[in-house]
Amino acid sequence: MSNCIIMYTNASSGIVLTLATLGLYTSHIYPVFVFGTLAYLIIVFCNLLVLAAIVVSKKLHKPMYILLLNLPISDTVGATAFFPQLLSSIVTENRLISHPACVTQAFLIHIYGTANLMILSAMTYDRYIAICCPLRYNVTMSPNTLIKIIIAIWLINFSLMVTLFLLLVRLKMCRTNVVDLYCNNPSLLKLVCEDTTVNNLYGIAGICLLQGGSLFIIIYTYAQILRTCVMTNLSHARKKAMQTCGTHLVVFLILQINTVGTLIAHRIESASPYIRRALGVSILIFPPLLDPIIYGLKTAELKQSIVMFLKRNPCSTKF
Question: Among positive and negative, which fits the CA dihedral 278, 284, 287, 288?
């Protein structure tokens, strides 16, 4: 059937792809569907709650929280790119997906992953300035600077991902079986029957820039933060800033470890496909689920604002 599809047309809109099987028994279909639906609703609800609390509460209109505002947006995009298609395929027991839909899903998922890395890196810089250079904080993290940082995050993100997928869609495919549970650039490249050297070089450069750059920022800023903590007595303001650092580091490491593990697994032929799929799915479940919970519980000001928001809007707790 797949050969007929490729012979019939080279247009991407006419290609139907098959995602990796979920391996569910018939008796498990509806329990898994219910669990997946609840997980998606919880993710969307928690992220929108954090988003609304920051927007409504004037005391949260600070650089750290304005940067944090972008995280639930990105998490919701990633979860929405993954869960609806997955839940639909569970109910219909159909793992087919059109090529345009597959590319769209992959694009949104990569947008989500890249945005999270860049947002967390920007938040790390904000904590570095707050703790190491408190007297310059208001000047360095001025509203104009903040706007520039946010615009740069999304502009660079879209530019990199648009280029990545333009390089992908120019290539002809000779296979239709996607090796992962959802569409992504590495799994789509494995369907191509042309030379992918340019794509691979661009992908490696992107990994070095995004993963390596964000890791460098984290290591450098936290080294400076620890140095400052050791050399000086922390003031009240610095203690409050330090409270968010541990939380921030946990969130960053969850995303970084899962992402690096998945990318490495894709490039090692002998890697277990089950481990690769598990790591790939965890990127789309745990950060969107844990980010609002961790920040909401561990960041005192945000926690208070969420509680106040829920008290003012009791209907919002019903979903």
Answer: negative
